[in-house]
Design a protein that fits this description.
single chain, alpha/beta, Rossmann fold, 2 domains, 5-stranded parallel β-sheet, 9 helices
C-alpha cells in the first residue's frame, strides 16, 4: 500500500462516516511513516470539506455531518500529536466554546473538527464558558477569532457580553467574534456587533477563513 492509497482510505472513511475505518487508515499512515501533515491535508481535509459542501447543499443532513465529524476527530486524535512543532502550519488560532449557562456541545464539536481540518489551531473551551474566560483564553492563545455558540434563546445574550467585554477592555479590534447556534440569526449577529454568523458548520468554516484574512 502506498501513500496515495492510504490518503484515499482516510478520505473514504470520512465520506462514509466510518470512525472505525478512519482509525484503521490513520494507524496505517502512522505505521508506514507517512508525514501526518500529508495525511491530514491530502486525505482528511478535502473529504471533510466535501462533506461540508454537501451539507450546505442539503445533499446530506445533520446525522451524517455528525458521523463525519466523529470519524474526523478519531483520525485527527492519532495524527495531530505526531506533527513536529517546527512543521505545524496554522492559519491562526480560534478559541471556541458554548456560552455560560448553555451545555449543548454537538454543533460546537462539529465546527471545532472542521476548523482543525481546515488548518486552524483550535482551543476548545467546552461548554458553559464564562464571558471572561473566552476573552482571557483568547488573549493567552493570541487567538485571532473567538467562536461563541449558544443553543438556547435564554443564553444568546452572553454572545453580546463577550463583545461588550472586549470593547470595555479596549481590545475589540484584536479578536474577530463569530456567533452561531439554533436561536441565532444574521440579524442578531449585526445587532450585537459580531463579525459574522455561522448558520451551520460549513458556513462557519468559510466565515473563519474570511475573518482570518482580514486579521
Amino acid at each position: 500500500m502506498d501513500e496515495k492509497e492510504v490518503q484515499k482510505d482516510l478520505a473514504d472513511a470520512i465520506l462514509s462516516y466510518d470512525s472505525v475505518a478512519a482509525e484503521k487508515a490513520a494507524k496505517a499512515a502512522i505505521k508506514m511513516g507517512m508525514d501526518p501533515l500529508n495525511a491530514i491535508e491530502k486525505g482528511l481535509s478535502p473529504a471533510i470539506e466535501d462533506v461540508g459542501d454537501k451539507f450546505e447543499k442539503m445533499e446530506i443532513y445533520l446525522p451524517e455531518l455528525m458521523l463525519a465529524a466523529d470519524a474526523m476527530r478519531t483520525a485527527m486524535s492519532l495524527l495531530l500529536p505526531l506533527i513536529p512543532k517546527d512543521k505545524a502550519v496554522s492559519k491562526g488560532t480560534v478559541v471556541i466554546g458554548t456560552v455560560q449557562g448553555d451545555i449543548h456541545e454537538i454543533g460546537k464539536n462539529i465546527v471545532s473538527n472542521m476548523l482543525m481540518a481546515s488548518g486552524f489551531n483550535v482551543e476548545d473551551l467546552g461548554v458553559d464558558v464564562k464571558t471572561a474566560t473566552f476573552v482571557e483564553e483568547a488573549q493567552k492563545a493570541n487567538a485571532k477569532i473567538i467562536g461563541a455558540s449558544a443553543l438556547m434563546s435564554s443564553t444568546i445574550g452572553s454572545q453580546k457580553d463577550i463583545i461588550d467585554y472586549l470593547t470595555s477592555m479596549k481590545i475589540r479590534k484584536k479578536h474577530a467574534v463569530m456567533v452561531g447556534g439554533g436561536p441565532t440569526t444574521g440579524q442578531w449577529s449585526k445587532e450585537i456587533g459580531a463579525d459574522g454568523w455561522g448558520e451551520d458548520a460549513a458556513t462557519t468554516v468559510k466565515l473563519a477563513n474570511k475573518l482570518i484574512k482580514r486579521k
